[in-house]
Write a structure and sequence with these properties.
Helix content: 40-55%
Structural class: alpha+beta
Number of domains: 1
Number of helices: 4
C-alpha cells in the first residue's frame, strides 16, 4: 500500500502525539505548558468480528494513513488492556529521546540503554556535582 506525502504528514503527527503522551509521563519529560495542550485527534476505523473460537477480534479499516493509524491505535488499545502500555517510555537522555519498552522488573527504567545513555548521563551528573564547591562545617 503506497502512502502519499500527505499520508506521511498525518502519520508524523500521530507519532509526535504519541511521543508527547509518553514524554508527559516522565517527571521531567515535558514542559508544564505542554501538558495542558489538548491532544490531537487522530481518527481511525476498526471493525470487530468474531473468530472461529468465538472471541471478538479488532481489525483495522481504511486506506492510506488511516489504515496505518488504525493499526497503531489498536496496538495502543491492546497494550493498555494488557497493562503493558505503562512500560512504553521515552529515554530521559535529552540527546536521545528514543522510545523504548521498559523490561525492568519494577518498571523503573529511564534510559533505552544504560550503556549508551545511562552511563554518560550519570557521568555528566557526577562531574557537575564535583564542580560545585562544598562548604566545610
Amino acid at each position: 500500500m503506497p502512502l502519499s506525502e500527505s499520508d506521511l504528514e498525518e502519520l508524523r503527527g500521530l507519532r509526535a502525539e504519541l511521543r508527547r503522551l509518553l514524554a508527559s509521563r516522565n517527571d521531567d519529560g515535558a514542559d508544564a505548558g505542554d501538558r495542558t495542550v489538548a491532544p490531537a485527534v487522530h481518527v481511525a476505523a476498526a471493525a470487530v468480528r468474531m473468530d472461529r473460537d468465538g472471541r471478538a477480534v479488532l481489525e483495522p479499516r481504511g486506506q492510506g494513513w488511516r489504515y496505518v493509524a488504525a493499526l497503531v491505535l489498536l496496538e495502543v488499545f491492546q497494550a493498555q488492556q494488557a497493562d503493558t502500555w505503562r512500560r512504553l517510555k521515552i529515554c530521559r537522555n535529552a540527546r536521545c529521546t528514543t522510545a523504548f519498552f521498559d523490561r525492568s522488573r519494577n518498571n523503573s527504567g529511564v534510559w533505552h540503554s544504560t550503556k549508551t545513555c545511562g552511563n554518560p548521563e550519570n557521568l555528566r551528573a557526577h562531574r557537575a556535582r564535583q564542580r560545585v564547591p562544598t562548604t566545610g562545617l
